[in-house]
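Our preliminary data section would be incomplete without showing what the modeling component actually yields. Below, a chain of 393 amino acids is followed by its predicted structure, encoded as tokens that our downstream tools consume directly.
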Amino acid sequence: MTPSTDGSLALDKPGGPLGPVWREAAERTQRDVLAQGATVVTCSAPLGAGGLGRHLSEILDAVERGGRPPQNVSGWSPPLSRALGRLRIPVSPGMRTRLFMGEFDVHAARLLPQSEHLIAFNGQALKQFAAARRKGYDSLALVSANSHLRQVARRHELAHRRYPLEGSWTRFMLERNLAEYARADRIYVASHYVRESFLAEGVAEELLFDFPLTPAPRFQPEGRHAGVGEGAGSGSASEADSGVAPDAASGRFEVVYVGSLAVHKGVPLLIDAIRRLPHADLRLTLVGGWGSRGMRRFVQSACAADPRLEVRAGDPLPYLRRARLCVHPAYEDGFAYAPAEALACGVPVIVSEDTGMKELIGSAAMGLTVPTDDLDALSQAIDAAYRRELLDR
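Predicted structure:
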């Protein structure tokens, strides 16, 4: 059992936030918490793609540091999900998620080789757990990418009451996740926030193992390049390809959000918070894409009404490097790579109370935590950063 990831690692930051000593300690913890022996790691996301893919890459790297090359099943595109997308059949995001996860679970279960340990992600592990038991695996581990799903469902309900723009995927996935929790020999959690959510729901403490997460090494301040593509980040395009100026010489106060443009990520709340502020030189760049018609209409309408708002796609690194502030007001996020990547680039952050990444904020200069779903607090915090009353770097 390892110490909980309560933020203590973040206090040692030579070379800047999330520096080399912190990273070495986190990677040592990752290696030591895993079961020793032949290991299979599965995930529906492609290696390195988005937060889930980055999470997968960290687990694979940790297994390899333990001395045994891992076997991996990931990145498969299920045929039914492909067909629904190709035919444009109207299926809710929640139902699509359940279909996708279920198809991947069956696929991965069929491919499981003889091994000793299985590590699978929540929402996509039931069939694999059963297959691994039949094959005599020594342990079944579940990676919880979120807090306990009952807590996720409550936070999503709060978000969708304020912004009824899309449905939540949690009602389609709760029963499956609860069954996985009950079958797992161990559950890997990425933050103290996630750990506490499981304890509050009655999960035994001895089942919970801390696996801290780290931003990819390429996320560094301007001038200390790790090389685009080094490590598995949120994208692979170069700054030259992005069309984004690599400096902040525009004179604007650049605020950036990176991630899916979804209600439960707090994107409508952030847009409303920015639109409350009168500053003409304030700009919000949303780096990501929407998954529902409701969010597309909301974001496009907001951008049309306020020229200070824009949506971009591609590699987030150049946007982070030119930003003065990164805001991640999620209603629930087990960790949240994007604001951690911002901190690694030297950009201060504002995050919500329901974000595991808040534990990496080691000083007032690095960031601020605001109450979840508090529009006034969020708008005031952004305004204070703009006025250099806090988070001035």
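The first helix runs from residue 20 to 33. The first strand starts at residue 39 and ends at 43. Preliminary results of this kind motivate Aim 1 of the renewal.
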